Amino acid sequence: MHRRLHQSHAAGVSLLELLIVIALIALVAGMVLPTFGNGVPTSELKAAARQLAAGLRIARSEAVSQKREAFLTLDIEGRRFKVDRDPREYSLPPRVGLKLFTAQNDIVNEKTGAIRFFPDGGSNGGRITVAAGERKYEVDVDWLTGRVAILD
């Protein structure tokens, strides 16, 4: 009798250990898979948002320092942007989705638009959404102050 009890107790411990291991695997998978979902790492998505925010801040700085209007022009289809009179174009990751919300008079066509900054530091306001699947970052420009912020 004593021997049979000992055998079932040993089987219960190994079952419990198995359940713990399965729970740990599920926990790790739950943390790792969103990072690699849709083939775009979260770090790449955030880097694209930071790159756009830096471009917007440069455009604002140019408007204030040169006392004239300055633009950040975004090519949504080509996934690139240009800061006002700077001849360089900055590329964004090819698998990142972009959406632009800006003033109607700064929309060139369905695929191109701009966010305008004024000499006083203000802006026409707007938002650029950088997304991959369910994950997204919004680069927001306040119309009154021209302040650029990344919202997630």
Order of helices and strands: HHEEEEEEEEE
How many structural units, i.e. domains?
2
Strand order of the largest sheet: 3-2-1-6-5
The main sheet comes to: 5 strands, antiparallel
Q: How confident overall, as mean pLDDT?
A: 87
CATH architecture type of the largest domain: 3-Layer(bab) Sandwich
Low-confidence stretches: none
According to CATH, the homologous superfamily of the largest domain is minor pseudopilin epsh domain
Radius of gyration of CA atoms, rounded to a whole number: 25 Å
Work out the strand percent: 25-35%
* CA(first)-CA(last) distance: 62 Å
> Which class of secondary structure composition applies to the elements?
alpha+beta
Descriptive report:
With 152 residues, the chain is of the alpha+beta class. The chain has two domains: 2-39; 42-151, minor pseudopilin epsh fold (3-Layer(bab) Sandwich). 39% of the residues lie in helices and 30% in strands. The chain has two helices and nine strands, in the order ααβββββββββ. It has helices spanning 2-36, 42-65; strands at 70-75, 80-83, 89-91, 97-102, 107-109, 112-117, 126-132, 135-141, 148-151. The strands form two sheets. The chain has a five-stranded antiparallel beta sheet, covered by helices on one side. The chain has a four-stranded antiparallel beta sheet with strand order 4-7-8-9, covered by helices on one side. A hairpin with a 2-residue loop joins strand 5 and strand 6 (112-117). The radius of gyration is 25 Å and the shape is elongated. The protein starts with a helix and ends with a strand.
